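Troubleshooting: if your tokenizer reports a length mismatch, compare your output against this known-good record of 502 residues.
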Amino acid sequence: MKINKIVIVGGGSAGWMTAAALAHKCPNIKLTLVESNTINTIGVGESTLGQINYYMELLGIKDEEWMAACNATYKASIQFTDFRDIGSTFQYPFGDFSAAQAQLDISPSEFLTLRELYPDDVKVENFGDYYSINGLMARHNKISGEPLPQYGYNPRKDLAYHMDATLFGQYLKGRFCSDIEHLIGDVDDAEMDAVGNIESISLSTGEVLAADMFIDCTGFKSLLIEKKLGVPFIEFEKLPNDKAVAAKVPYADEEDKISKLHNVTDCKGLSSGWLWNIPLWDRAGTGYVYSSKFQSTEDAEAEFRKETNWDGEVNHIDFRHGYHEKAWHKNVVAIGLSFGFIEPLESTGLLTTHSLIMLLVRVLLRNDGLVNSIDREHFNKHSVNEVVSLSDFVAIHYGLSSRRDTPYWRYVTEDVEYKHEVLSESDFGELNSYLHTSLVYVALGMGWSPQQLFDESMFEPLDKVLWEENKNLLTTYTGIVDTFIHTLPTHYEYLVKNIYKD
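Known-good structure output:
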């Protein structure tokens, strides 16, 4: 099939991110975007992961060009409070820890031995502080916009963003989509051909749009991939959260902003789920993700208000977690929520969106828009593998918790069958080959040491002199990095100087 014309159904961040990438990289393809004016976006703020930089580089945009238009701030880490147990906090910093390991010559496996030998001095929840400069930047709310090769740090891959996703979509629309046909209307019907492809869609305005490919960016409605083509939706049974109550909370004044403009997404465990806080430049986006199996809408809102001291307007959100059996079926590609959703924890929503966008761009560029069934099969395998593996990763944040204080936490730690391949001996038995995964940070932060299960050498006699030296080396190195961190500007100072100059 030769793709000469594409119709994108749905605006929002997914629709305009898709449109911008295709317009920029595939200018020979005629694009139309159909947007409904009857569907409101959630728009409480969006948190990203470091992989968002690949999408920014695909478009060739720099921070100072887009961040101010989207009230964006930086994100060096995800902070987890009251997840392991009440009163605990740990960081999941971005970036690898190869530079720290090279200077220390202490591998993560050896770190675990140090933790067993010196539990009072080497805390497992501080693994991120030892092995990533981002961990300490997050702890002290500092930012570097320049690469720090001596610490293995590159801001173009080790920093992510908080942003107003609705404004980001509008920024992309204005900068990259001026030549795209933009229509307002709702899809009323679709005409199918003899083999099940969509030939055209009919809009509420009376217009009929034909195309070679249709991209479904209709969110949870999944209007084309599910409603028209009937692709089955598969739920994640191991993830209980299905609702949220959210709010946009303005800063009281500039001092309040300075105190709250932390360079992390803070996630705090509550009675039946967790609370997010995303500090944007003009306000905070906050919300409580919870399970309706364990808490009513009224009780969840009450707990949210008590936790945040917010007495203003809130937005109640229902979501389903899972994915469609295929992201690309016939001539329809589902991108964003229309393909699947895990839940807000770990900021995977935009990750899976821009991941599929970039894969589709590569497919269309490979042979000048000529696609085949192998392209489609590869796209589907990638999309399903990604969302399933990410769901496993999200699930361990609950399954590894030590909390048992509410029915919700007892359920997620004792009753859910996770069947985790990601916690298998083959993955964790050799930590040295698993350096670049976030799984290590989170598992250790949750107090789950794979060495306790898989490494028989920890029962062998150890050279205490050598390990004492290793412990001292670790703490000395961390002190050096900590001292350097204090020479960096704060998150607020860096934003004022480099992004929000006026």
